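FW: tagging you since you asked about this chain on Friday. Here's the raw sequence from the shared folder, copied in full. Didn't touch anything.
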Amino acid sequence: MIYIYSKSSAEKSTEDVIDWLNFYEAEFERINGSDLVNNFSYRINNRHVGTENDIVWFRRWYDSGEITNKLTDVNLRNKNFANLFRNVSSELKIVSDFFWRKFKNCRWLTYPHELANDKLEVLEAATMCGLTIPDTIITTSKRDLIEFRKKSKRIISKLMSNAAPSYSLNEYFVALYTSEITDDILDSIPDNFFPSLFQELIRKQYEIRIFFLEGNLYPMAIFSQNDKQTQVDFRNYNHSKPNRNVPYKLPDEIESKIKLLIKKLKLTTGSIDIIKSQQEDYIFLEINPVGQFGMTSRPCNYYLEKEIAEYLIKANKN
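HL: got it, structure written out here
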């Protein structure tokens, strides 16, 4: 049996893979993380699932935004909201952990613990594998940030985790894209702030998104530097004038270092972001174990949805 953990029934990338599973008449079962807070029942009985012959594809799961949306009747300014949110999250974690343990003997395409690889750990591992990373600082001090900016000239701020880049909170929409720290932003920052990650802004020729699946790399060049909206973070998509995306061939040396990093982090699949700088250097940025692959598949004709479906079917037979 093939088991699929996804975020919701509306997630297109998962739907595209399922279309191929249906085409091949493969047997599978899907569990959506969003159902845990919407419409879910599971009976614990003598039925045994999760054998060594099964494979589980962990695509995505629920996120914190879905929890807050279920708590819209609560006054978000209430001092007890944080405790309520923590308690609800703990309850959901119990259910999630139950499923992970239930299928612990299966083969996995992305195991949940792989998501714990935060960007700090990944950056350090990348340097150990011989990859170049941007000059980076984690700080709570405005004074140290100012000194860092003087050295790097232009800097950006980004999340340290693989949290969702945007979410809705009642009538508000919050975007968490990578952003440049301008003079105005720097002036508005207090002397001490929440621990944050800052990096030098790399002047790029183009960005490279690499999807990987069990040792195979599928790179794509993204010409995002010519659009002000996407210069700093291509995920801040310009839907009216999309970036040009083309298949890409990595140098053998860079490809070998990336594969070494994937092996070191014990990842099975995911997406990697790299910059080709104006100085012709390849600068590693980050890895997302559940990164999007549709954006790489379609422009480059990689047919990744078919590749994933065939991988799951083959793994289930072995």
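FW: The radius of gyration is 21 Å.
HL: agreed, and The chain has three domains: 2-110, 135-200, 202-289.
FW: great, closing this out.
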